[in-house]
enoyl-CoA hydratase (Roseivirga seohaensis), 257 residues
Amino acid sequence: MEFIKVNKAYAKHIALIQLNRPKELNALNLQLMGEIRDCLKELDQDDEVRVIIISGDERAFAAGADIKQMAGKSTIDMWKVDQFSTWDQINKTRKPIIAAVSGFALGGGCELAMTCDMIVASETAQFGQPEIKIGVMPGAGGTQRLTKALGKAKAMELVLTGKFISAEEALGYGLINKVVPVEVYLKEAVSLASEIAAMSPIAVQMAKEAVKRSFEVPLEEGLHFERKNFYMLFSSEDQKEGMNAFVEKRKPDFKGK
Ligand code: CAA
């Protein structure tokens, strides 16, 4: 891996993917996104890993897709490479993904954070979709995910003016989960990840699947899907362990079986 660093033992059951193009503010070139895709695929199959964190560095989570790589491309070049198809894996990953964001999360960087399941941000984080300023528009989910999170009026303002919002504002809009001082944003993401990693990984993944489904299907279908997943969990050992531990007044020890 050239443009990401991966630590599978960052904390118990937690893997950290760190974007590693600091000089380019972690601009998301094709190779970097391919590395994220391959890495997520592998981590999703690794039973030791229960939660994944994606972070950048203090100055930038990511300042968007790599403009220099795209600048000279034609429509057919873009279509052939279909660069956003590598993003599908992020959406397909069953394990929860937390974005730990400091500094710039712009364009594709904002979209990458929004494609994750939760966002923990430092006070220095800035979110925005500035593609309009370079003659294009968001292409990796920004018009959809930002609108679902912020509502039409604010999303429209951000997408059409390219202006940024602070972490505090993003928190107010419900785009992110937490804002903490820059010194502890990664620690805070790990703490949230550890809380989730202590739960049954099967229940966590099925619950994540059901929450995500709520964005895609009508209520009745979503409720049906939720109920099916709930019933399915009764064939897991973790369900027996969790409920028995409650009855026996002890802490459950979930094995992911
Ligand atoms: N692509 C390629 N290189 C980038 C980049 C990007 N998205 N963002 C920053 N860089 C590079 C800069 O070119 C610069 O490189 P050099 O030192 O070689 O000149 C380096 O990173 C540092 O950047 P700046 O000197 O510009 O740093 P700054 O602090 O003055 O400004 C910034 C920071 C406001 C983030 C500014 O860099 C900027 O506006 N970046 C572009 C943001 C943007 O438009 N993102 C959207 C991209 S398109 C997209 O993402 C499409 C999509 O939907 C997926």
The pocket of acetoacetyl-coenzyme A is lined by residues 24-25, 27, 63-68, 104, 106-108, 111, 130-131, 134, 138-140, 142 (CB under 6 Å). The chain has twelve helices and ten strands. The beta strands are 4-11, 14-19, 51-55, 60-62, 97-101, 104-106, 118-122, 126-128, 164-166, 178-180. The chain has two domains: 4-197, 201-247.
